[in-house]
Amino acid sequence: MCGRFVAGRDPVSVAAAFGVEELPERMLPPNYNVAPTQQVSVVRDRDGVRCLDIARWGLIPSWAKDPSIGNRMINARSETVAEKPAYRSSFATRRCIVPADGFYEWQRDPKIPYYLHPADGSVLAMAGLFAWWHDPRISGEDDPAAWVMSTTILTMPAQEPISAIHDRSPVALPPELFDPWLDSAAPGDPVLAEALAWRPEGYWSIREVSRAVNRPQNNSPQLLDPVVHEGSGITQETLEL
Fold first, then answer.
1. Residues 51, 105, 194, 208: which is the catalytic one?
2. Residue 45 — φ and ψ, nearest 5°?
3. Structural domain boundaries of the chain?
4. What is the pTM of this model?
5. Among the options 2, 51, 96, 208, which is catalytic?
6. Active site residue 51
7. Per-residue pLDDT tens for 89-113?
8. How many angstroms separate the CA atoms of 151 and 56, rounded?
9. Which CATH superfamily is domain 4-239 in?
């Protein structure tokens, strides 16, 4: 799964990487320890215009009675996303990209955190979905404050070298799939199939980092500094597969 990630880049540079034409009224500050329910940037197409928007991490289906359901819906499994009631509508017409520098994952025994990111320093384009939820406490559908935009990140069975650490990973999109993934008029299944099959050798760079990332309150670039933990059991040769 993907339960924490890093979004430390300047939003303007992120927008340039995805051909964004419209920016939000406010920009999110750098976040080196993004946690569920926090606000994140998403890239989407709106009436043919590529936009950078801000969404709550944890998808809230339109039929939800309250937003707390989103706390458990930060990830959507790629294997079932087209059928699950909470995701299928968004998968059909509301696909997005959640840009990141990289993400954290924890080896389970012993529990050791790792930072995983594109080795070439490019933006990690995580396949995502978004939804709109109307807050029943606010009357009037014309009131922008009544609507909450939320998002989830698609995951897939992990391949080497990530599988040495965890059994799931985010679905990463190569640049050639940005347009078809964001095209709400096109079916998502063939694009997702291509993304799942995309396994470039040497794409991931992985390193152990401080256990300080375990607390979402810790948020600084120093979280990305390499740390060697005793008894990790993961060799450098394994990570370079």
1. 105
2. -100, 130
3. 4-239
4. 0.93
5. 2
6. no
7. 999 999 999 999 999 999 988 889 9
8. 6
9. SOS response associated peptidase-like (3.90.1680.10)
